[in-house]
Amino acid sequence: MAIGSSTGGVEALLTVLGGFPADCPATVVTQHMPATFTASFAARLDRVCAPTVTEAQEGAPLQPGHVYIAPGGVAHLEVASGLTPRCRLTAGEPVNGHRPSVDVMFQSVAGLGRPMTGVILTGMGQDGRKGCEAVKSHGGVVVAQDEASSLVWGMPRAVITANLHDAVVPLSRIAGLINESCSRTKEKK
Questions:
Q1: Integer-rounded Cα radius of gyration of the chain
Q2: Which of 18, 115, 135, 152 qualifies as a cystine partner to 140, CB 3.0-4.6 A?
Q3: DSSP class of residue 64?
Q4: CA–CA gap between residue 100 and residue 28 (Å, rounded)
């Protein structure tokens, strides 16, 4: 699971992750935020959400029941493939004006060759659109927040306008939709 957000994303992430069960799929999150805030934001989410939420660390193995927040400003969060996928923090220029970038994270997760869902929440600009192209080209599912519940409908609109979405839903229904989808995937195994 990969989630991208920007302006308005703090409250949106509290809503979405607050609806996740303790045994949610391993989830990586890029929220456009300055470096000085991401660790405290991860700690805040950890206090109020059922899964364990931490700021992503280089080499951390992705585990079910855990959410990894990209550190702000210093690197892009990617997921390295392997028997156990791991967080990789990569230096690099900003992408779409952002470091970390939703596009970079989504593209790395899409390339793992595993079932995945990408979620685009409220935010300005179009960071995440190219990442959603990668998700779709690898058979993944894309969920976009609807306009009415978005503080800024730039990022979701870019994905929807490019016809890269599988569902457009209000913020209040995103966690439930994801949980239902994950339950169906578990039943098929």
A1: 15
A2: 135
A3: T
A4: 12
Cis peptide leading into 51, omega within 30 of 0?
A: no
Q: Check pLDDT > 90 for residue 187.
A: no
Calculate the alpha carbon distances from 32 to 87, 146, 184 in Å: 18, 19, 31
Question: What six digits make up the tokens of 42?
Answer: 């991860």
Give per-residue pLDDT as tens, 128-168. Answer: 999 999 999 999 999 999 999 999 999 999 999 999 999 99
Q: Per-residue pLDDT for 188 more than 60?
A: no
Separation CA 122–CA 140 (nearest Å)? 20
User: What H or E segment, with its residue span, contains residue 86?
Assistant: strand 86-90
Report the percent of the chain where pLDDT is more than 70: 96
Active site residues: 6, 32, 127
Any residues with CB less than 8 A from the CB of 184 and at least 6 apart, and which? none
The gap between the terminal CA atoms of the chain, to the nearest Å, is 18
CB 142 within 8 A of CB 165: yes
